[in-house]
Amino acid sequence: MKRIFSTALCTLAVLGLAATGFAGEIPVKGSTTVQPIMQKAIEAFMAKNKGVSISLSASGSGDGAKALIDGSTPLAMMSREMKDTEIKQAKDKGVNPKQILIAYDCLTPIVHPANAVKNLTLAQLKDIYTGKITDWKNVGGTPGPISVVSRDSSSGTFEYWNEHVLKKERVFARAQMQASNGAVAQTVSKQKSAIGYVGLAYTQNKGLKAVTVEGVGGSVENTLNGTYPISRGLYLYTNGEPSGDVAKLVNFILSDEGQKIVAQVDYVPVKAAKKAKK
Length: 278
Hints:
Layout lengths: L9 E3 L13 E5 L4 H14 L5 E5 L2 H10 L4 E4 L5 H9 L4 E15 L7 E2 L1 H8 L17 E5 L4 H9 L11 E3 L2 H10 L3 E6 L9 E2 L1 E2 L6 H5 L6 E9 L4 H11 L1 H9 L3 E2 H8 L1
Parallel strand pairs: 2-3, 2-4, 6-11, 7-8, 7-9
Antiparallel strand pairs: 1-3, 4-12, 5-9, 5-10, 5-12, 5-13
Helix pairs in contact: 2-3, 8-9
């Protein structure tokens, strides 16, 4: 993927009818990590279905869950599984969340290209993000303060990082909390002292340098072979079995054509992962 997507509302629309209950337009909301997949998938889907109108808004997995629960979207993008509390809230409102796995991703630490650091261990990442390591010289870099850039708490990316890297310890109080993968990438690209983390699709930017973790680079191949230590699933959630145009869109994303789009934006197709596990 050659560009970084912002958190601003990205609307793709043509005139026509949408899924039942969403006359005129199907609103898709949630994760900025899943956004690159949905961006291209919706473009391709609407090109084949001229009477369908779909809008895409990405502001975080937590917002996607809320939108599904309150009925403002029939299709939520999430880079984590729904929490038990979210599922309970949904069922209390008569919503029955159905999880649909559409891809795999690996969270990748990023730094400015001028930064000499090439590899960090999970322990070093944890200490940087909890404020125990505050100078690059302590991890083999040029002496100088580390500017910590993180996703905000509504993000599924943050929650996965918090659980698997920070081990649920509190993030550094002076960390710069950003609302999207794109915002993290942009911040790091402008600060030589910064470190951030993004989904794999956001690393393809000349203003960034991906850092290996435990000597293993974040990549489709290393996600498939299980050697990269910070990998996860990417999901869509619907209220029960999807129907109408929503079902058609979901089926398109899971089709061979849709899974090729997943690969095109540097994520791991579900079918490829299944083959690798055999």
